[in-house]
Amino acid sequence: MSRDAAIARIHSPPRSAMQSGRAKTEGWLLEFAPSESRKLDPLTGWFGSGDTRAQVRLSFSTREAAEAYARANGIAYEVEAVPPQKAEIKPKVYADNFRYGRAENWTH
Questions:
Q1: Within 18-108, where are the H helices?
Q2: pLDDT tens for each residue of 17-68
Q3: Cβ–Cβ under 8 Å, residues 75 and 2
Q4: Sheet arrangement for strand 57-60
Q5: Which residues pair with 60 in a beta bridge?
Q6: Burial code of 31-52, b = ≥16 C-beta within 10 A, e = fewer?
Q7: Which of 107, 88, 85, 87 has its CA nearest to residue 96?
Q8: Which of 76, 77, 92, 94 sits most deeply, having the most CB atoms within 10 A of its CB?
Q9: What CATH number should be reported for the domain whose range is 7-98?
């Protein structure tokens, strides 16, 4: 039932470096690994390949839904573990700079 030996990667998208919130990081993505190397086109000078699966990104609400889709379509897949979340940063208060008995150094 499997068409190719292409392996898909199922992962939770990381947070963008340009954002501080958690938007667009809740779902799961299924992406295919490139099955052939990219070659230089002599006419245009651009890199490309005949692999159209590398352009496909399927999004799912849960990891189980992504795995079920891959199994139903005979796609070999690997699940990437979710990186651990860092602890929330406690916001500082400006008045704490003048608090009696503070242990931190002066901040300005």
A1: 63-72
A2: 776 777 767 889 999 988 888 899 899 999 888 888 888 899 999 999 999 9
A3: yes
A4: 57-60, 28-32, 7-11, 76-79
A5: 28
A6: bbeeeeeeeeeeeeeeeeeebe
A7: 107
A8: 77
A9: 3.30.160
